[in-house]
């Protein structure tokens, strides 16, 4: 009975949040819209990372690769194609690169996979540097500029799509397959699951949403170069945000990405010289005392509340 009551309550809260976000630009100032757009970007990247890495326990450090591919797709095709098609192309190209990456490293596991994906980002970044220096003759390029409100709504739609896919994937038989791969690949293969195929496909699916986000956010920054597009920090940030929020529930990475992005902006604006120190202290506290993130804290609070009522 409690589960039946909780289910519609979650959906009602979700719909209310979507309604607030959809109408937000009409009653808030432009600066806040820019800040919330950044939050939406990190939510998209974090949920995309969790979509594949959390159930399979594969540590991907290539988020910046696919985000950067989306940015450069926007930079190259932005003046040629309609922007909605540019965004789709950014996601599709990232999807194809994700497929290729999965095929190449299908035998790698554990930290070997993590090192490979991080090296992939450096390979792509330096390849773009070489291409721009020797072929295009320029390092960096200008991107078409969109209004802040337009970028905000594009990112909102992408985030909603990403969260919905992650939510239904987790509750489908494909989600069970991914979790079985994370528990034991050998056992999953023994019962007839094509481990390699599912691993490659869903890794590429997670890359698709990263590419969508990159294609949109490129228009916010107007100018991109390999250092901006393939910033190595983006490889680690979604991982830390996912750990902060917790990966046990879909709202964990959403909450973690939202809170940490907001906290980082406050720290950077008010304490620019102590920003990284304070940020590091926050993570030490979380890892030491909240190993399951905010999701674990919420579950513990609910259990204590239930026990107290009972």
Report on the structure:
The structure is a single chain. The chain is mainly alpha-helical and about 300 residues long. It has one domain (about 1-310). About 80% of the residues lie in helices and about 0% in strands. The chain contains 14 helices and two strands, in the order αααααβααααβααααα. It has helices spanning about 1-25, 30-55, 65-75, 85-105, 110-135, 150-170, 175-185, 185-190, 195-220, 225-230, 235-245, 250-270, 275-290, 295-310, and strands at about 140, 225. A two-stranded antiparallel ribbon has the order 1-2. Helix 2 crosses helix 12 and helix 4 (about 85-105) packs antiparallel against helix 9. The radius of gyration is 20 Å and the shape is globular. The model has no long low-confidence stretch (mean pLDDT about 90).
């Amino acid at each position: 009975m409690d589960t039946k009551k909780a289910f519609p309550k979650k959906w009602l809260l979700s719909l209310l949040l979507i309604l607030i976000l959809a109408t937000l630009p009409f009653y808030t100032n432009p600066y806040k819209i820019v800040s919330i757009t950044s939050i939406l970007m990190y939510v998209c990247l974090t949920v995309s990372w969790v979509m594949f890495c959390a159930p399979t326990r594969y540590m991907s450090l290539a988020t910046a690769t696919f985000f950067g591919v989306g940015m450069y797709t926007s930079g190259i095709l932005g003046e040629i194609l309609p922007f909605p098609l540019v965004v789709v192309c950014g996601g599709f190209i990232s999807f194809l690169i994700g497929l290729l990456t999965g095929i190449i490293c299908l035998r790698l596991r554990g930290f070997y996979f993590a090192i490979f994906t991080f090296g992939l980002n450096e390979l792509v970044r330096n390849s773009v540097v070489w291409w721009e220096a020797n072929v295009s003759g320029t390092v960096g390029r200008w991107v078409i500029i969109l209004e802040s409100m337009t970028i905000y709504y594009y990112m909102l739609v992408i985030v909603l799509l990403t969260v919905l896919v992650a939510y239904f994937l987790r509750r489908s038989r494909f989600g069970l397959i991914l979790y079985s791969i994370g528990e034991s690949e050998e056992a999953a293969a023994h019962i007839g699951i094509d481990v390699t195929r599912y691993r490659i496909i869903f890794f590429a699916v997670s890359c698709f949403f990263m590419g969508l986000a990159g294609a949109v956010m490129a228009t916010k920054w107007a100018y991109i170069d390999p250092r901006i597009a393939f910033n190595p920090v983006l490889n680690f940030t979604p991982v830390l945000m996912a750990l902060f929020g917790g990966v046990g529930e879909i709202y964990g990475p959403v909450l973690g990405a939202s809170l940490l992005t907001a906290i980082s902006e406050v720290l950077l604006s008010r304490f620019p010289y102590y920003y990284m120190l304070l940020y590091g202290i926050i993570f030490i506290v979380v890892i030491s005392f909240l190993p399951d993130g905010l999701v674990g804290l919420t579950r513990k609070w609910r259990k204590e509340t239930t026990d107290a009522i009972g």
